[in-house]
Amino acid sequence: MESADSKTKSTILLERQSLPDFSESKSWDEMTEHYRDYIRSFGKKRKVTRGKKREEKGRENPVLMTIPFEWQYGEDFSFTRDKHVITFYRSPDDPFHYDYDIRSHGFDCDILLSSSLSDLPLNNIARVTHNTARLQDDVCYDRIAILSTRGYANMYHNAEWIVNFIHYASNIANFPLIDAFFIVNPTHDLRHSTTSDWNSAFFSNTLSIFPDEIRPVFLNSMKGRVNTVCIHRALFISITTPIMDMFLDLREPLLVKKVMYRAFHISEEVRRPPRLQTLFIVREGTTRQIVNLDELVGRMKEEMGERMELRTMFFKNMSFEQQVVLMSSTDIVMGMHGAAFVNIMFMRPRSGFMEFFSPIAHILYYENMARKTDLVYVGVARNRVAPSKRKIADGRNKNIIVDVNMVMRQFIPLVNDVFEQKYFLVS
Protein backbone atom coordinates (compact mmCIF):
# COMPACT_ATOMS: atom_id res chain seq x y z
CA MET A 1 0.00 0.00 0.00
CA GLU A 2 1.34 3.42 -0.94
CA SER A 3 2.29 5.51 2.08
CA ALA A 4 0.89 9.01 2.60
CA ASP A 5 4.35 10.59 2.54
CA SER A 6 4.87 9.37 -1.03
CA LYS A 7 1.96 11.52 -2.23
CA THR A 8 1.46 15.25 -2.54
CA LYS A 9 -1.17 17.15 -0.59
CA SER A 10 -2.86 17.82 -3.95
CA THR A 11 -3.17 14.10 -4.72
CA ILE A 12 -4.64 13.35 -1.30
CA LEU A 13 -7.22 16.14 -1.54
CA LEU A 14 -8.38 14.98 -4.97
CA GLU A 15 -8.59 11.34 -3.88
CA ARG A 16 -10.72 12.30 -0.88
CA GLN A 17 -13.17 14.29 -3.00
CA SER A 18 -15.88 11.82 -3.96
CA LEU A 19 -18.37 12.16 -6.78
CA PRO A 20 -22.00 12.86 -5.78
CA ASP A 21 -24.28 10.01 -4.78
CA PHE A 22 -27.41 10.80 -6.78
CA SER A 23 -29.39 8.10 -4.98
CA GLU A 24 -29.62 10.57 -2.08
CA SER A 25 -31.78 12.99 -4.07
CA LYS A 26 -35.13 14.25 -2.81
CA SER A 27 -38.33 12.92 -4.31
CA TRP A 28 -40.52 15.07 -6.53
CA ASP A 29 -43.57 14.01 -4.52
CA GLU A 30 -41.95 15.49 -1.42
CA MET A 31 -41.41 18.75 -3.32
CA THR A 32 -45.08 18.75 -4.37
CA GLU A 33 -46.22 18.26 -0.79
CA HIS A 34 -44.10 21.17 0.47
CA TYR A 35 -45.25 23.33 -2.44
CA ARG A 36 -48.94 22.78 -1.78
CA ASP A 37 -48.41 23.63 1.89
CA TYR A 38 -46.61 26.78 0.78
CA ILE A 39 -49.42 27.85 -1.58
CA ARG A 40 -52.03 27.28 1.14
CA SER A 41 -50.03 29.26 3.70
CA PHE A 42 -49.47 32.05 1.19
CA GLY A 43 -53.20 32.35 0.55
CA LYS A 44 -53.93 32.65 4.27
CA LYS A 45 -51.21 35.27 4.64
CA ARG A 46 -52.63 37.32 1.76
CA LYS A 47 -56.08 37.36 3.35
CA VAL A 48 -54.60 38.70 6.58
CA THR A 49 -52.55 41.42 4.86
CA ARG A 50 -55.18 42.49 2.32
CA GLY A 51 -55.91 45.77 4.11
CA LYS A 52 -52.29 46.83 4.59
CA LYS A 53 -50.27 49.17 2.41
CA ARG A 54 -49.45 47.95 -1.06
CA GLU A 55 -45.69 47.85 -0.47
CA GLU A 56 -46.25 45.42 2.41
CA LYS A 57 -48.07 42.97 0.16
CA GLY A 58 -46.59 40.28 -2.04
CA ARG A 59 -43.20 40.15 -0.40
CA GLU A 60 -43.31 36.43 -0.99
CA ASN A 61 -43.86 34.90 -4.39
CA PRO A 62 -47.43 33.60 -4.90
CA VAL A 63 -46.35 30.87 -7.32
CA LEU A 64 -42.67 30.14 -6.66
CA MET A 65 -41.47 28.48 -3.47
CA THR A 66 -37.92 29.28 -2.36
CA ILE A 67 -35.63 26.26 -1.99
CA PRO A 68 -31.91 26.03 -1.03
CA PHE A 69 -29.50 28.53 -2.65
CA GLU A 70 -32.45 30.92 -3.10
CA TRP A 71 -33.56 28.95 -6.13
CA GLN A 72 -37.29 28.40 -6.68
CA TYR A 73 -39.73 25.60 -7.31
CA GLY A 74 -43.01 25.91 -9.21
CA GLU A 75 -45.81 23.83 -10.71
CA ASP A 76 -48.29 23.97 -13.58
CA PHE A 77 -47.14 26.68 -15.97
CA SER A 78 -46.26 27.26 -19.60
CA PHE A 79 -42.97 28.60 -20.91
CA THR A 80 -43.05 30.60 -24.17
CA ARG A 81 -39.50 30.28 -25.38
CA ASP A 82 -39.08 33.09 -27.91
CA LYS A 83 -40.76 35.77 -25.77
CA HIS A 84 -39.41 34.49 -22.43
CA VAL A 85 -42.87 34.49 -20.86
CA ILE A 86 -43.86 32.13 -18.07
CA THR A 87 -47.59 31.76 -17.37
CA PHE A 88 -48.76 30.03 -14.21
CA TYR A 89 -52.20 28.44 -14.25
CA ARG A 90 -54.44 28.35 -11.19
CA SER A 91 -57.97 27.17 -10.46
CA PRO A 92 -60.86 29.64 -10.94
CA ASP A 93 -61.47 29.92 -7.18
CA ASP A 94 -57.95 31.20 -6.50
CA PRO A 95 -58.53 34.91 -5.69
CA PHE A 96 -54.96 36.06 -6.28
CA HIS A 97 -54.48 37.03 -9.91
CA TYR A 98 -51.82 39.61 -10.69
CA ASP A 99 -48.58 39.97 -12.60
CA TYR A 100 -45.32 39.11 -10.89
CA ASP A 101 -41.89 40.12 -12.15
CA ILE A 102 -39.53 37.19 -11.81
CA ARG A 103 -36.43 39.25 -12.61
CA SER A 104 -35.89 39.77 -8.90
CA HIS A 105 -35.21 36.04 -8.78
CA GLY A 106 -32.61 36.10 -11.53
CA PHE A 107 -34.76 35.57 -14.61
CA ASP A 108 -35.53 38.09 -17.31
CA CYS A 109 -38.97 36.61 -17.91
CA ASP A 110 -42.45 38.03 -17.61
CA ILE A 111 -44.57 35.99 -15.22
CA LEU A 112 -48.33 35.97 -15.64
CA LEU A 113 -51.05 34.33 -13.60
CA SER A 114 -54.07 32.74 -15.28
CA SER A 115 -57.29 31.32 -13.84
CA SER A 116 -57.63 28.51 -16.38
CA LEU A 117 -55.84 25.52 -14.92
CA SER A 118 -57.89 23.35 -17.28
CA ASP A 119 -55.99 24.89 -20.21
CA LEU A 120 -52.93 22.81 -19.31
CA PRO A 121 -52.86 19.21 -20.61
CA LEU A 122 -52.44 17.80 -17.08
CA ASN A 123 -54.16 14.59 -18.20
CA ASN A 124 -51.09 13.92 -20.37
CA ILE A 125 -48.02 14.34 -18.15
CA ALA A 126 -44.78 12.91 -19.56
CA ARG A 127 -41.07 12.83 -18.80
CA VAL A 128 -38.31 13.77 -21.22
CA THR A 129 -35.77 11.03 -21.96
CA HIS A 130 -32.76 10.79 -24.25
CA ASN A 131 -35.08 9.09 -26.75
CA THR A 132 -37.49 12.05 -26.85
CA ALA A 133 -37.21 13.31 -30.42
CA ARG A 134 -39.14 16.57 -30.10
CA LEU A 135 -41.38 18.45 -27.69
CA GLN A 136 -45.16 18.41 -28.21
CA ASP A 137 -47.75 21.05 -27.40
CA ASP A 138 -50.35 18.58 -26.05
CA VAL A 139 -48.05 17.22 -23.33
CA CYS A 140 -47.25 18.60 -19.88
CA TYR A 141 -43.59 17.82 -19.17
CA ASP A 142 -42.45 16.87 -15.69
CA ARG A 143 -39.19 17.09 -13.72
CA ILE A 144 -37.70 20.05 -15.58
CA ALA A 145 -35.23 22.78 -14.61
CA ILE A 146 -35.06 26.29 -16.04
CA LEU A 147 -31.65 27.91 -15.67
CA SER A 148 -30.78 31.55 -16.17
CA THR A 149 -27.45 33.12 -17.13
CA ARG A 150 -26.16 36.63 -16.55
CA GLY A 151 -26.21 37.22 -20.29
CA TYR A 152 -22.50 38.02 -20.55
CA ALA A 153 -20.52 36.17 -23.17
CA ASN A 154 -17.04 35.77 -21.66
CA MET A 155 -15.69 32.54 -20.19
CA TYR A 156 -16.01 33.53 -16.54
CA HIS A 157 -19.67 34.53 -16.75
CA ASN A 158 -20.55 31.43 -18.75
CA ALA A 159 -18.79 29.37 -16.09
CA GLU A 160 -21.05 30.99 -13.46
CA TRP A 161 -24.27 29.46 -14.75
CA ILE A 162 -22.61 26.17 -15.70
CA VAL A 163 -21.22 25.84 -12.16
CA ASN A 164 -24.84 25.80 -10.96
CA PHE A 165 -24.78 22.13 -11.99
CA ILE A 166 -21.89 21.68 -9.55
CA HIS A 167 -23.88 23.41 -6.78
CA TYR A 168 -26.85 21.20 -7.59
CA ALA A 169 -24.96 17.90 -7.84
CA SER A 170 -22.80 18.40 -4.76
CA ASN A 171 -25.91 19.18 -2.68
CA ILE A 172 -28.22 16.66 -4.31
CA ALA A 173 -29.84 15.65 -1.00
CA ASN A 174 -31.66 19.01 -1.12
CA PHE A 175 -33.07 18.58 -4.64
CA PRO A 176 -34.97 16.10 -6.83
CA LEU A 177 -33.34 14.66 -9.95
CA ILE A 178 -34.17 16.64 -13.09
CA ASP A 179 -34.80 14.93 -16.43
CA ALA A 180 -34.22 17.94 -18.67
CA PHE A 181 -33.56 21.67 -18.64
CA PHE A 182 -33.98 24.91 -20.55
CA ILE A 183 -31.59 27.86 -20.49
CA VAL A 184 -33.01 31.38 -20.51
CA ASN A 185 -30.61 34.19 -21.15
CA PRO A 186 -31.24 37.75 -19.92
CA THR A 187 -30.05 39.17 -23.23
CA HIS A 188 -32.35 36.79 -25.15
CA ASP A 189 -29.12 35.64 -26.77
CA LEU A 190 -28.66 31.93 -27.38
CA ARG A 191 -24.87 32.20 -27.51
CA HIS A 192 -24.61 31.13 -23.87
CA SER A 193 -22.96 27.79 -24.65
CA THR A 194 -21.78 28.22 -28.21
CA THR A 195 -19.63 31.35 -28.22
CA SER A 196 -16.45 29.32 -28.02
CA ASP A 197 -15.00 25.86 -27.73
CA TRP A 198 -14.28 26.63 -24.08
CA ASN A 199 -17.89 27.44 -23.19
CA SER A 200 -19.47 24.48 -24.94
CA ALA A 201 -16.79 22.03 -23.75
CA PHE A 202 -16.97 23.17 -20.13
CA PHE A 203 -20.77 22.87 -20.35
CA SER A 204 -20.82 19.35 -21.82
CA ASN A 205 -18.05 18.02 -19.59
CA THR A 206 -19.68 19.45 -16.47
CA LEU A 207 -22.84 17.53 -17.36
CA SER A 208 -20.73 14.35 -17.33
CA ILE A 209 -20.90 14.55 -13.53
CA PHE A 210 -24.27 12.82 -14.00
CA PRO A 211 -24.17 9.10 -14.90
CA ASP A 212 -25.40 8.43 -18.44
CA GLU A 213 -28.72 6.98 -17.32
CA ILE A 214 -29.73 10.11 -15.36
CA ARG A 215 -27.93 12.84 -17.31
CA PRO A 216 -30.47 15.63 -17.98
CA VAL A 217 -31.41 16.51 -21.55
CA PHE A 218 -30.59 20.01 -22.86
CA LEU A 219 -33.95 21.12 -24.30
CA ASN A 220 -32.75 24.28 -26.08
CA SER A 221 -30.95 22.08 -28.59
CA MET A 222 -33.98 19.85 -29.24
CA LYS A 223 -35.47 20.18 -32.70
CA GLY A 224 -39.12 21.01 -33.21
CA ARG A 225 -41.43 23.97 -33.65
CA VAL A 226 -43.20 23.92 -30.29
CA ASN A 227 -42.65 27.39 -28.88
CA THR A 228 -44.88 27.25 -25.79
CA VAL A 229 -44.04 24.27 -23.59
CA CYS A 230 -46.34 23.12 -20.77
CA ILE A 231 -44.53 22.11 -17.59
CA HIS A 232 -45.92 20.31 -14.55
CA ARG A 233 -43.04 20.60 -12.04
CA ALA A 234 -39.77 22.50 -12.30
CA LEU A 235 -36.80 23.96 -10.48
CA PHE A 236 -35.92 27.58 -11.30
CA ILE A 237 -32.14 27.83 -11.03
CA SER A 238 -30.61 31.30 -11.22
CA ILE A 239 -27.14 32.57 -10.38
CA THR A 240 -27.36 33.49 -6.71
CA THR A 241 -23.65 33.51 -5.89
CA PRO A 242 -21.90 36.93 -5.86
CA ILE A 243 -20.73 37.98 -9.31
CA MET A 244 -17.08 37.90 -8.19
CA ASP A 245 -17.24 34.63 -6.23
CA MET A 246 -18.86 31.72 -8.10
CA PHE A 247 -17.93 28.82 -5.81
CA LEU A 248 -19.76 28.12 -2.56
CA ASP A 249 -16.93 26.31 -0.76
CA LEU A 250 -13.57 24.56 -1.15
CA ARG A 251 -15.20 21.27 -2.18
CA GLU A 252 -16.66 22.56 -5.42
CA PRO A 253 -13.40 23.33 -7.30
CA LEU A 254 -12.12 19.91 -6.22
CA LEU A 255 -15.25 18.38 -7.72
CA VAL A 256 -14.72 20.36 -10.95
CA LYS A 257 -11.18 18.98 -11.16
CA LYS A 258 -12.40 15.47 -10.41
CA VAL A 259 -14.87 15.64 -13.30
CA MET A 260 -12.52 17.28 -15.82
CA TYR A 261 -9.52 15.10 -14.98
CA ARG A 262 -11.71 12.03 -15.47
CA ALA A 263 -13.01 13.37 -18.79
CA PHE A 264 -9.49 13.92 -20.17
CA HIS A 265 -7.76 10.95 -18.47
CA ILE A 266 -5.55 13.13 -16.26
CA SER A 267 -4.05 11.31 -13.30
CA GLU A 268 -4.97 12.67 -9.87
CA GLU A 269 -1.50 11.84 -8.64
CA VAL A 270 1.22 14.45 -9.05
CA ARG A 271 4.94 14.06 -8.37
CA ARG A 272 7.47 16.67 -7.34
CA PRO A 273 9.12 18.06 -10.50
CA PRO A 274 12.81 18.95 -10.65
CA ARG A 275 11.72 22.53 -11.38
CA LEU A 276 8.32 24.18 -10.98
CA GLN A 277 6.40 24.47 -14.25
CA THR A 278 5.60 28.18 -14.55
CA LEU A 279 3.52 29.97 -17.19
CA PHE A 280 3.18 33.65 -17.99
CA ILE A 281 -0.06 34.07 -19.95
CA VAL A 282 0.19 36.95 -22.42
CA ARG A 283 -2.63 38.67 -24.28
CA GLU A 284 -2.94 39.42 -27.98
CA GLY A 285 -3.64 42.97 -29.07
CA THR A 286 -2.35 46.30 -27.84
CA THR A 287 -4.28 46.82 -24.60
CA ARG A 288 -3.98 45.33 -21.11
CA GLN A 289 -0.28 44.69 -21.68
CA ILE A 290 2.74 44.74 -19.37
CA VAL A 291 5.03 47.08 -21.28
CA ASN A 292 8.25 45.90 -19.60
CA LEU A 293 7.31 42.20 -19.69
CA ASP A 294 10.60 41.12 -21.28
CA GLU A 295 12.57 42.75 -18.47
CA LEU A 296 10.36 41.09 -15.85
CA VAL A 297 10.53 37.61 -17.40
CA GLY A 298 14.29 37.92 -17.87
CA ARG A 299 14.75 38.80 -14.22
CA MET A 300 12.55 35.92 -13.07
CA LYS A 301 14.56 33.44 -15.11
CA GLU A 302 17.85 34.93 -13.94
CA GLU A 303 17.05 34.78 -10.22
CA MET A 304 14.83 31.69 -10.01
CA GLY A 305 15.83 29.64 -13.04
CA GLU A 306 17.20 26.83 -10.90
CA ARG A 307 13.85 26.35 -9.17
CA MET A 308 11.38 26.95 -11.99
CA GLU A 309 11.00 26.65 -15.76
CA LEU A 310 9.20 29.71 -17.15
CA ARG A 311 7.35 29.89 -20.47
CA THR A 312 5.18 32.61 -22.00
CA MET A 313 2.17 31.65 -24.12
CA PHE A 314 -1.22 32.64 -25.50
CA PHE A 315 -4.38 30.75 -24.53
CA LYS A 316 -6.53 32.09 -27.35
CA ASN A 317 -6.07 29.29 -29.90
CA MET A 318 -5.93 26.40 -27.42
CA SER A 319 -8.85 23.98 -27.12
CA PHE A 320 -10.62 23.51 -23.82
CA GLU A 321 -9.00 20.12 -23.34
CA GLN A 322 -5.54 21.58 -24.00
CA GLN A 323 -6.16 24.30 -21.42
CA VAL A 324 -7.34 21.84 -18.77
CA VAL A 325 -4.38 19.51 -19.36
CA LEU A 326 -1.93 22.40 -19.31
CA MET A 327 -3.29 23.92 -16.11
CA SER A 328 -3.37 20.55 -14.36
CA SER A 329 0.41 20.30 -14.81
CA THR A 330 1.24 23.96 -14.11
CA ASP A 331 2.68 24.91 -10.73
CA ILE A 332 2.54 28.70 -11.08
CA VAL A 333 0.59 30.84 -13.55
CA MET A 334 0.93 34.59 -14.02
CA GLY A 335 -0.47 37.34 -16.21
CA MET A 336 -2.67 40.40 -16.56
CA HIS A 337 -6.20 40.11 -15.15
CA GLY A 338 -8.51 38.56 -17.75
CA ALA A 339 -11.13 35.89 -18.44
CA ALA A 340 -8.52 33.26 -19.35
CA PHE A 341 -7.78 32.90 -15.65
CA VAL A 342 -11.07 31.10 -15.13
CA ASN A 343 -8.82 28.13 -15.96
CA ILE A 344 -7.16 28.35 -12.54
CA MET A 345 -10.02 26.16 -11.28
CA PHE A 346 -8.25 23.26 -13.03
CA MET A 347 -4.96 23.79 -11.15
CA ARG A 348 -4.05 21.45 -8.34
CA PRO A 349 -4.31 22.70 -4.73
CA ARG A 350 -1.43 24.83 -3.45
CA SER A 351 -0.32 25.79 -6.94
CA GLY A 352 0.57 29.47 -7.35
CA PHE A 353 -1.15 32.37 -9.10
CA MET A 354 0.26 35.88 -9.58
CA GLU A 355 -2.25 38.34 -11.08
CA PHE A 356 -1.33 41.80 -12.41
CA PHE A 357 -3.78 44.72 -12.51
CA SER A 358 -4.08 48.23 -13.77
CA PRO A 359 -3.74 50.47 -10.67
CA ILE A 360 -7.28 51.77 -11.25
CA ALA A 361 -9.03 48.41 -11.69
CA HIS A 362 -8.28 45.87 -8.97
CA ILE A 363 -11.10 43.33 -9.47
CA LEU A 364 -11.59 40.29 -7.23
CA TYR A 365 -12.96 37.61 -9.60
CA TYR A 366 -9.86 35.44 -9.67
CA GLU A 367 -8.54 36.26 -6.21
CA ASN A 368 -11.76 34.82 -4.81
CA MET A 369 -11.56 31.83 -7.14
CA ALA A 370 -7.91 31.26 -6.17
CA ARG A 371 -8.80 31.16 -2.49
CA LYS A 372 -11.69 28.72 -3.05
CA THR A 373 -9.40 26.65 -5.29
CA ASP A 374 -6.78 26.57 -2.51
CA LEU A 375 -4.06 28.31 -4.50
CA VAL A 376 -1.18 30.43 -3.21
CA TYR A 377 -2.30 33.84 -4.49
CA VAL A 378 -0.41 37.10 -5.08
CA GLY A 379 -2.11 40.18 -6.53
CA VAL A 380 0.08 42.93 -7.98
CA ALA A 381 -1.87 46.19 -8.24
CA ARG A 382 0.69 48.88 -7.39
CA ASN A 383 1.73 49.41 -11.00
CA ARG A 384 2.05 52.50 -13.18
CA VAL A 385 -0.21 53.21 -16.14
CA ALA A 386 1.92 53.31 -19.27
CA PRO A 387 1.82 56.59 -21.25
CA SER A 388 -0.46 56.31 -24.27
CA LYS A 389 -1.86 58.59 -26.96
CA ARG A 390 -5.00 56.44 -27.09
CA LYS A 391 -7.88 57.13 -24.73
CA ILE A 392 -8.89 53.86 -23.06
CA ALA A 393 -12.14 54.18 -21.11
CA ASP A 394 -12.08 50.82 -19.35
CA GLY A 395 -9.48 50.97 -16.58
CA ARG A 396 -8.88 47.23 -16.85
CA ASN A 397 -7.48 47.69 -20.35
CA LYS A 398 -4.78 50.19 -19.48
CA ASN A 399 -1.25 49.08 -20.28
CA ILE A 400 1.01 49.04 -17.24
CA ILE A 401 4.66 49.28 -16.24
CA VAL A 402 5.58 47.08 -13.29
CA ASP A 403 8.22 47.71 -10.66
CA VAL A 404 10.41 44.68 -11.36
CA ASN A 405 12.19 44.80 -7.99
CA MET A 406 8.88 44.96 -6.13
CA VAL A 407 7.45 42.06 -8.16
CA MET A 408 10.52 39.94 -7.46
CA ARG A 409 10.11 40.52 -3.72
CA GLN A 410 6.70 38.84 -4.09
CA PHE A 411 7.60 36.27 -6.72
CA ILE A 412 10.51 34.62 -4.89
CA PRO A 413 8.40 33.78 -1.79
CA LEU A 414 5.62 32.54 -4.10
CA VAL A 415 7.99 30.03 -5.73
CA ASN A 416 9.27 28.89 -2.34
CA ASP A 417 5.73 28.59 -0.91
CA VAL A 418 4.54 26.42 -3.80
CA PHE A 419 7.59 24.17 -3.49
CA GLU A 420 7.02 23.74 0.23
CA GLN A 421 3.21 23.61 0.39
CA LYS A 422 2.25 21.77 -2.79
CA TYR A 423 4.89 19.06 -2.42
CA PHE A 424 5.58 19.05 1.31
CA LEU A 425 4.56 15.39 1.80
CA VAL A 426 7.06 14.25 -0.82
CA SER A 427 10.61 13.65 0.32
Automatic annotation (TrEMBL):
PANTHER family: GLYCOSYLTRANSFERASE. The keyword Glycoprotein applies. It holds the Pfam family Glyco_transf_61. InterPro entries: Glyco_transf_61_cat, Glycosyltransferase_61. Residues 261-353 form the Glycosyltransferase 61 catalytic domain. The keyword Disulfide bond does not apply. Keywords: Glycoprotein, Glycosyltransferase, Transferase. It comes from the Eukaryota. This is EGF domain-specific O-linked N-acetylglucosamine transferase. GO terms for molecular function: glycosyltransferase activity.
